[in-house]
Amino acid sequence: MFAFLFHSKNMTEKEIQDLRRQYTKSTLSVKNVSKDPFKQFEKWFTEVMNSGFFEPNAMTVATATRAGKPSARVVLLKGFDERGFVFYTNYKSKKGNELEENPFASLLFFWDKLERQVRIEGRIEKVSEQESTDYFNTRPYKSRVGAWASKQSSVIENRSVIVSEFLKYMMKFRTHVPLPPVWGGYRLVPDSFEFWQGRPNRLHDRIRYTLSKKIWKIERLAP
Ligand SMILES: Cc1cc2nc3c(=O)[nH]c(=O)nc-3n(C[C@H](O)[C@H](O)[C@H](O)COP(=O)(O)O)c2cc1C
Question: Would the pTM of this model clear 0.90, i.e. be above it?
Fold first, then answer.
């Protein structure tokens, strides 16, 4: 089955197995990281912003149902500070429903050019309606209309369903587009961070921060 799939894409299984790189760009140690994981993130994120990524703020958000069945998807980070990491979405989407029943989530950044990965875990809360409105109003007109048009994660018959919803809301909101009641921000409030720096021979550097009694404990993990 797999062999068939690989051949049909003109790539052999061996070619895939042979994809590997040596990581040599940087290093990480308990001594050279910031004591504050938010500051460490800010330092790395500044480097990412200066490294010509197409979507520097793209991150994977993993959520899970109450029963622990996980799902993951990419969203865009829209802000971070010492309170946490914010993204915007539809509160009635699959992720929104999962967060409703289980507020624990995990964020993942992979910046391949810098040979870096960051994992952040914690609890998710909704940002205030005012914060969502402020951000919503910065979005381009058609993106604001799109937020009304899409009942995110629901099954639709075909593409014309969403196109006609879009046109309907364009007619309805010709200039001012209010914040849709089901749309807004989530903030992940971290209790754990892991910074991963690729190193030669798979002996990567991994530094983990865990919050215990308001103090960030810093430890090295085996790669
Ligand atoms: C680069 C990229 C950025 C995305 N940004 C967002 C985002 O900021 N918010 C969002 O709701 N979906 C975003 N998406 C779409 C999500 O990956 C996903 O399809 C959608 O949120 C529905 O996920 P769900 O059904 O698990 O709730 C983005 C997708 C990609 C590939």
Answer: yes
